[in-house]
Design goal:
459 residues; mainly alpha; Glycosyltransferase; two-stranded antiparallel sheet; two-stranded antiparallel ribbon; 14 helices; 4 strands; 47% helix; 2% strand; binds 2-acetamido-2-deoxy-beta-D-glucopyranose; transmembrane helix; EC 3.2.1.101; signal; Glyco_hydro_76; glycoprotein
Length: 459
């Protein structure tokens, strides 16, 4: 994810006052068919933002202002859309996008993105591939690697970055992969959350204890360093300059969700251990008290009106992962399912703007559109609505249990990526030279300043 201080509403993706009409998506949550129908409308409106399948466009990229990571996150939502509804309409462009962004190292590090890619950006694409394996989403045609291999590739590159990063703060991944990027000296909960989440899910899918060991190690580090409090508040991150003492205390729903479903995967993997039961229960309790207002999900930046483009999509991930948790740790379902329903009902009330009067807004707690719409808003509403179809789908598949057959590859991600060596780039053009000078300048600031403080001011 990128530093993105104050981009909120621009005319390019916000509703103009006066356009607000009556709600045009209605859903009867006592009918699976009705939920599917509502999801189909929201899915169509979400995919209307995507142009990557058009000739001459780039599959797997969204137009500005949406960053590359969010496109990976969006296609995870589309895999889930297929899983929950059986509607295959968007599968061709979903598969095309995922395959286009694989990169030479089978780890979602494509040449065009690698230089500015963070562990979290890569992690969101990796988790999309993991979801494809877990839901038995159809494999991409040969010679594309299996979905499992892609998730393993991402995990393997990140595991390879741990040793270097561990020289600081006794463990934990850095936010950024490369030293020339702002944020290299920051260790954040979302990057470590992606690695924890993937490890726990790979353990569950493959039965390979190595992944579980690393998931435990990562969870323990996050807890011990204080990014997760004893009451399961999860903070944004911490700088290595002071040995990870001070914290950025911002709390985000995607951090709650990523640790919740990782813990639920470990709970399931350990056949219901008391330790992971307690963690799932604790994270869920704090998630509910932090991110729900009268049963409706809310990002903490909403009341101030200062959610940036990235943050506008976070409720998609909390919805996605709460639903998965209800399956993996069934004792949570009586708490989770009613909240997903009340949130979905509230969310649909915001879907009254845009050309067709069905695009959705950000603030579900208000009972009306708040004047915004965009990819993040749409994706969040789609995930929370389709999550209500959870009782109609099987739980995640697993090769270890004989229910999943995605092709894996433990050598994916092992090609020349030590975390410090950028991939060989294409021949330098004038445009790239400008970029290179800029990157060098940033690197110098990093060296001279020693510990250039990251300018994160997420509200
Ligand atoms: C949806 O389908 C599931 C599984 O068939 C069923 O258990 C559930 O009762 C249905 N829900 C509604 C609201 O009809
Ligand atoms: C890579 O970036 C260049 C320059 O922005 C663009 O023209 C090209 O289409 C991109 N290719 C891919 C595969 O992303
Ligand atoms: C840094 O913090 C870790 C615990 O997070 C501690 O084990 C280590 O000794 C500290 N190092 C320094 C140099 O203070
Ligand atoms: C969970 O139970 C299964 C089936 O009894 C067993 O094969 C597996 O080893 C158990 N897993 C763990 C982590 O104890
Ligand atoms: C979470 O809340 C439930 C219901 O209040 C309670 O029974 C449970 O002990 C709590 N879990 C933890 C870990 O505090
Ligand atoms: C693990 O998840 C499956 C659904 O995928 C569920 O049926 C099973 O009960 C879960 N195991 C435990 C120990 O809760
Ligand atoms: C897994 O099984 C399904 C159903 O039999 C099949 O369609 C699919 O091609 C298989 N996937 C792989 C990777 O073999
Ligand atoms: C388990 O995963 C680790 C990490 O990729 C790998 O080194 C090991 O060979 C795997 N074990 C098996 C039995 O596949």
């Amino acid at each position: 994810m990128r530093w993105n201080p104050s981009l909120v509403c621009t005319v390019a993706f916000c509703a103009l006052a006066g356009q607000v009409a009556d709600a045009t998506i209605t859903a009867d949550f006592t009918s699976n068919a009705s939920i599917k129908q509502a999801a189909a409308t929201v899915a169509k409106d979400l995919m209307a933002w995507y142009t990557g399948m058009n000739p001459g466009d780039v599959p797997g990229n969204l137009p500005s202002p949406y960053y590359w990571w969010e496109c990976g996150a969006m296609f995870n939502t589309m895999i889930n859309y297929w899983y929950y509804t059986g509607d295959t309409t968007y599968n061709p462009r979903t598969t095309q996008a995922l395959v286009a962004q694989i990169g030479e190292n089978t780890a979602f590090m494509p040449q065009n993105q690698t230089q500015s890619e963070g562990n979290d950006d890569q992690g969101f694409w990796g988790m999309a591939a993991m979801t494809a394996a877990e839901t038995n989403y159809p494999p991409a045609p040969a010679p594309a690697p299996g979905w499992l291999a892609l998730a393993q590739g991402v995990w393997t590159t990140q595991q390879g970055r741990w040793a270097e990063a561990s020289a600081y703060c006794n463990g934990g991944l850095r936010w950024q992969i490369y030293p020339f990027n702002n944020g290299y000296n920051y260790k954040n909960s979302i990057s470590n959350g992606c690695f924890f989440n993937l490890g726990a899910r790979l353990a569950l899918y493959t039965g390979n204890q190595t992944y579980a060991d690393w998931a435990i190690k990562t969870f323990d580090w996050v807890y011990d360093v204080g990014l997760m409090s004893p009451t399961y508040q999860i903070f944004d991150g911490t700088q290595i300059a002071d040995n990870c003492t001070a914290k950025d205390h911002n709390t985000w729903s995607y951090n709650a969700g990523i640790y919740l479903v990782g813990a639920a995967s470990m709970y399931n993997y350990t056949n219901g251990s008391a330790e992971w039961h307690d963690r799932v229960s604790g994270i869920l309790n704090t998630t509910v008290s932090t991110f729900f207002v009268n049963g409706v999900m809310q990002e903490l930046c909403e009341p101030s009106g200062k959610c940036n483009v990235d943050q506008r999509s976070f409720k998609a991930y909390l919805s996605r992962w709460m639903a998965a948790t209800a399956k993996l740790a069934p004792f949570t379902a009586p708490t989770i399912m009613p909240l997903l329903q009340s949130s979905a009902e509230a969310a649909l009330k915001t879907c009254t703007v845009g050309g067709g009067n069905t695009q959705c807004g950000l603030m579900w707690t208000t009972g009306a559109n708040d004047g915004s719409y965009g990819v993040g808003e749409e994706m969040s509403v789609l995930e929370v609505v389709q999550s209500n179809l959870l009782p109609t789908v099987p739980g995640w598949a697993s090769a270890a249990k004989g229910t999943g057959n995605s092709t894996g590859d433990i050598s994916a991600g092992t090609k020349s990526d030590t975390g410090d060596t950028p991939l060989v780039l294409s021949p330098i053009t004038t445009g790239d030279r400008v970029g290179a000078v800029f990157l060098t300048a940033l690197a110098l600031v990093g060296v001279i300043g020693g510990t250039a403080t990251m300018m994160v001011t997420e509200a």
